[in-house]
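--- STAGE predict ---
source: upstream dedup step, 1 unique chain passed
mode: sequence only
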Amino acid sequence: KRLDEAYELVKNTVSTGGIVLFVGTKKQAQESVAQEAARCGMPYVNQRWLGGTLTNWRTIRQRIDYMLEIERQQSRGEFARLTKKEALMREREINRLNHRMGGLRDMRRLPNLLFVIDVRRDTIAVKEANILGIPIIAMVDTNCDPDPIDYAIPSNDDAIRAIKLMNSTMASAVLEGQAILSSIRAEEDEVAGMEDEQAMERYLGPSTLAKIQAEYADDDDDFEDSDEEDVDDDSEEELVEAAGVVADAGETAGFDEVEEDTGSEAAEPALEAVSEESSSEEVVEEA
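--- STAGE serialize ---
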């Protein structure tokens, strides 16, 4: 029953855009917390809890932003301009900050809900959440005080299987809440579009709105027709150019034929004159 209540709380919190912070710094929980939180896209703390992570969140966020800036410098290759010692110191600083606060790199604001594995080990996190009024879901063993916990789940917080089961269940609740949130946002976008259309119809009137839509449709048709005309004009120009090339080639060939014909016609009278002269010479000799 307690687990079902916690499941519903996580799902409802995420479905309204809330953030669930997974906290498990004990050795048995570190790997499971990181895997399940990454699976559902939620922040986590699986190393030593830094004092003021919640109550002094602004300073913690500044350190995270500093870490991200150094990582960007490294990815851009700016460390190559530093000396070997300076570059090594920057790399060590990135590793140190990422080890302590890497699970919080994507958390831009305070969480709406905490899921804690071991209340005794992470007592500072519980106290900070109580100060800020953040609800807490926690695995509560027989040696833990359930009073600071809003939703206590009786379980063995030392058993690895129990820890994995709880982390997996909470991550599944987060994923279900995210699916609900996505569907709600899609419906809101659809309703907003319908409201915009109704508002336009209310202010402009059905006839005016229909006229505007018809004008837009005509503009689209004109645009398509103009594209087709441009294509036709281009094809006609190409045909005209091709015909011109063919005509030029024909004229050139015709000119050569005319030259040959004129040359043969001019040669025929000359041959006739030569034949007449030779025949006259033969007549004189015979005489």
